[in-house]
Amino acid sequence: MTGSFRTRIAAALGTLALVAGGAVIAAPAAHAGGPDCANYLAGGNPHRGGPIAEVACGVGSTGLPTASKLLCETVMGKVGQVGPAKTDTACKQAAG
Fold first, then answer.
1. Whole-prediction pTM
2. Secretion signal: which residues (predicted)?
């Protein structure tokens, strides 16, 4: 039950960010910050990252003032249950 709830929250926040940020998330190659953030969260192993980390890093790389940082930290910290120090560093990397 918890896994499906997290998936729904991540999907809802990802959709919100896509609507707010336009096609920025649809073209993640345009932002180097997102992959750097996901790689940091995976501990340097790109195969260890998960969909929640990818959504959070994608949201953090949108460049929306305040909103992208807040959404990144919310998705990563509350939904992904990543610690606050790691969340702060990853979201800063996502912002580029």
1. 0.61
2. 1-32
